[in-house]
Specification:
By secondary structure, the chain is α/β, with parallel strands linked by helices. The strands form two sheets. It has a five-stranded parallel β-sheet with strand order 5-6-7-4-8, sandwiched between helices. It has a three-stranded mixed β-sheet with strand order 1-2-3. Helix 11 links the parallel strand 6 and strand 7. The radius of gyration is 28 Å and the shape is globular. The termini are far apart.
Length: 483
């Protein structure tokens, strides 16, 4: 009977809490509710004293300052037997209410917009990892909108002389809670293993220490989240989410360039985490001192940790990568073919693996046709021709400027007149077609971001179909550059 009465009381309190949450949501709005009130839970109740639990001290203090009076008043109206409410910090709830009282399942049954920061582990809207715990999280949940690559683990990372230091540093950070260098800053050109190592760190933490609080996102996502917080006038929630983590990982940090207000916020977030002994891991395409548009004080903090340059691959490492990839794909790769690919394709690992996949696919589609050197050269002739030619973006800019009778300086300028804008788009399109440079690298050559390059490429692809004259001009330029 006592147990039954206890359960009935619990359900009554739960129902009252659900009604209170609905009222709070109506009074304070969905954004404030999702950011500050939704994470709360009912704790123990003894002699008329109720505990309301917050996951972090920062959140508890904010709720006490801004919402406690109203919560107390509503509770008095709902249940006069509750004489006092204490707000406490409790990250995991082991009491009898842990299953039903979290803010909650009752409120969640009423459709509400997702927390605009998406920082809880169930939403994973940062793209890769976000949340308070990695325990019991599926790969799909962990991945979010930009999935983690299940093959990007330490076990699958081929180590050679050019990347062994980066590998050792990444593994040390993944294995240790006691930060020995902070931040860890990884940089290299495209396709040399930065993303592989970042994903490897997360998979290792997920497997061996799932309760560590990790956020992994790109610099662009960080900028977007902060701008959104400014727009909704709720930067306090943004600060709380990012400053309460154990590990903060930011990819493609070069995109933080010239983002003054966001850089300032990142600087303070970074400083707060480092002072508290939390790990920060950053990747970029350049060293901190060479990053464009980054404030000097932030550069100074970035170089204060361990800066690791992942060098271009050497022949032995490329051979190792090819053999490992061939084993994964289940194909018989002749030594001569592997040597040919390792000698020819030296720019980045991604291109090397892509070429092997093309050859393997060709073999399989032709009913297991043997992979030979002749077949490899035939399948990859377009790629090999581009590699042999080694067309540069500078050369493309020069030829396009001459063809359209403008200067290279105009091509790189901010002028939007059609006589300049169209040749600029053509030059970006040709740079994408004839070089192995990434969109961000192409964009920097034109003092633009990668989205502008994407737009230019799509636009020219459309115009080639509609405008015969432009198509002919581009074909002439292509032949000139390839010969």
């Amino acid at each position: 009977m006592a147990e039954e009465a206890f359960a009935t009381e619990g359900r009554t309190i739960d129902n009252q809490w659900g009604q209170i949450c609905n009222q709070l949501k109506m009074e304070f709005g969905e954004t404030a509710f999702d950011s500050w009130l939704k994470p709360l839970s009912i704790g123990d109740i003894n002699d008329g004293v109720m505990n309301i639990c917050a996951p972090t001290a920062f959140m508890k203090n904010w709720v006490v300052t801004h919402y406690s009076d109203r919560i107390n008043k509503i509770w008095e109206q709902q249940n006069p037997s509750i004489k006092k409410i204490n707000f406490i910090v409790q990250t995991s709830f082991g009491n009898r209410r842990s299953e039903d009282t979290s803010l909650l399942k009752k409120i969640s049954s009423t459709p509400t917009p997702q927390n605009i920061y998406g920082c809880n582990i169930n939403s994973s809207s940062f793209g890769l990892v976000a949340g308070s715990s990695l325990a019991n999280v599926s790969n799909q949940e962990l991945a979010g909108s930009t999935p983690l690559n299940p093959n990007y683990t330490f076990e699958n990372f081929v180590v050679g002389k050019t990347n062994e230091f980066a590998y050792a540093a990444a593994k040390k950070v993944a294995e240790s809670k006691n930060v020995s260098f902070n931040p860890l800053f990884l940089y290299s050109s495209v396709g040399l293993g930065k993303t592989h190592l970042m994903h490897s760190i997360i998979w290792h933490i997920k497997k061996n220490d799932p309760n560590r609080n990790v956020i992994y996102l790109t610099a662009e996502q960080f900028v977007y989240k902060f701008v959104k917080a400014l727009r909704y006038k709720d930067t306090a929630a943004f600060k709380e989410q990012f400053r309460s983590v154990d590990v903060l990982m930011v990819d493609d940090f070069q995109f933080m360039g010239n983002k003054g207000t966001t850089q300032e916020e990142f600087f303070h977030t970074f400083s707060s985490l480092v002072e508290e002994g939390k790990q920060v891991i950053i990747s970029a395409d350049k060293s901190p001192t060479d990053l464009d548009g980054i404030e000097e004080r932030l550069k100074s903090r970035l170089v204060g940790g361990l800066v690791v340059d992942i060098m271009p691959t050497n022949f032995d490492l490329r051979m190792g990568i090819l053999k490992r990839k061939a084993e994964v794909l289940g194909i018989d790769l002749p030594e001569k073919v592997a040597e040919f690919l390792a000698q020819k394709i030296t720019s980045n690992v991604r291109e090397l693996e892509g070429s092997l996949k093309r050859v393997a696919a060709h073999s399989q589609l032709l009913s297991g046709k043997e992979i030979t050197l002749d077949m490899t050269q035939d399948v990859l002739k377009d790629m090999l021709r581009s590699i042999d030619r080694k067309t540069t973006i500078d050369e493309i800019q020069k030829k396009v400027a001459e063809h359209f009778n403008i200067s290279v300086k105009e091509l790189q300028s901010s002028r939007r007149a059609r006589t300049v804008a169209r040749p600029r788009q053509v030059a970006m399109y040709l740079a994408k077609q004839l070089t192995s440079r990434s969109l961000p690298e192409i964009g920097r050559k034109f003092d633009r971001d990668h989205t502008t390059v994407m737009h230019a490429v799509r636009k020219v692809e459309e115009l080639i179909i509609e405008d015969q004259s432009l198509a002919e001009n581009i074909e002439v330029l292509r032949r000139t550059l390839e010969n």
